[in-house]
Amino acid sequence: MSLWEGLTGQADAIAVLESAASSSALGSTDESSMTHSWLITGPPGSGRSNIAYAFAAALLGTRGDETEESVYKQVIARTHPDLGVLSTERVIISIDEVRKLVSASQFSPSVGHYRVMIIEDADRMAERTSNVLLKALEEPPPRTVWILCAPSEADLIPTIRSRVRSVRLRTPAIADVAQLLHERDGVAPDIAARAAREAQSHIGMAHRLATNAEARERRETTLTTALGIRTVSEAVIAAATLLELSKADATALTEERDAQERESALRSLGVAPGGTIPPALRAQLKAMEEDQKRRATRGLRDGLDRVMVDLLSLYRDILLTQIGAPGELINLSILNNINSVAERTTAVSTLAIMDGIAEARHRIDSNVSPALALEAMLVKIAVSGRGA
């Protein structure tokens, strides 16, 4: 089994990381290959965390050793004794979480040559929290390696950027993502190709669209709702519809996970299914439920953002059609509607709508009420005379 298997379209990044892991295994002192802190950047769905864990496994296991597969399994399960991980399902990473990880990074490796610390979504750290991490990056223990993941270098403070080596991932080709879905998940080639195209090469979302009929239906409803808006009152109604779609999407992603998490927690605490929870254990379950609520908040934001991305893809297709620009359309399943809208509207109005969608994303990210942000965005569509 290859540690880098399934990391679609990232040959250049893999070559850099594989070279670094190889030099470290051979005891090389070549600083151009290996360093103590890394930043893996790339667009959503490019596989930042996946490649980070593959790199961690390569550092923690000896290349060519027969136990390489078992090391990789431990890393993926987050159970390796020399691996520290900070990932969050919330909107931000708290300063206490970073302090705890920094403290753990000071210990020497127990079974391997390195102690590897991974922070997923490092862009979710506030400046004060980032400064706590900065001190650890400035004076790391000799055998500790930090791996940070973020969409771009600009998402981190300059002082952290100056202390890490960046590895940039690219957006995988649609054909590569479709091939991965077909070979790994057994998805029919035509469905895989459509899912990869509509997900815009986001591997995780492509997998979901290819394997979940309800996710496909929610996406189709999003586009048809926007195309059906003609009046301001319809825009207000459509905003409520899109908000419900986002909530349903977020619930579908978190509900099953929350139930499994609760069942696992009860089992580990020795509470039988349906049994009474002892008072002494209720505080632990309450803390878990609070984390789940915070995760639901982030899930809703992510669901809203997926709606915005889908709408941007729709109006991007309309704009390309209006100006006759080269490039494959994303939403080929509704090509007739795209052509109809492109014929009776102008590129200027389409650009104005795309600006409105971008503004709505910014407003929601700034804690503006999602309902109000959606209404303002869809009113702009109504004013521009959009319709199916």
Strand and helix layout:
Elements: H1 11-25, E1 37-41, H2 48-60, H3 68-76, E2 83-86, H4 95-104, E3 115-119, H5 127-138, E4 144-150, H6 158-161, E5 165-168, H7 174-185, H8 189-198, H9 203-211, H10 213-227, H11 232-268, H12 279-323, H13 335-344, H14 347-365, H15 370-383
Parallel strand pairs: 1-4, 1-5, 2-3, 3-4
Region (Disordered): 254-278
Pfam family, one: DNA_pol3_delta2
Protein name: DNA polymerase III delta prime subunit
**Alpha-carbon distance between the two ends:** 49 Å
In sequence order, what are the helices and strands, one letter per element?
Answer: HEHHEHEHEHEHHHHHHHHH
Question: If you average the pLDDT, what whole number results?
Answer: 85
- Please count the helical segments: 15
Query: What is the domain total for the residues?
Result: 2
Shape: globular
Strand % is 5-15%
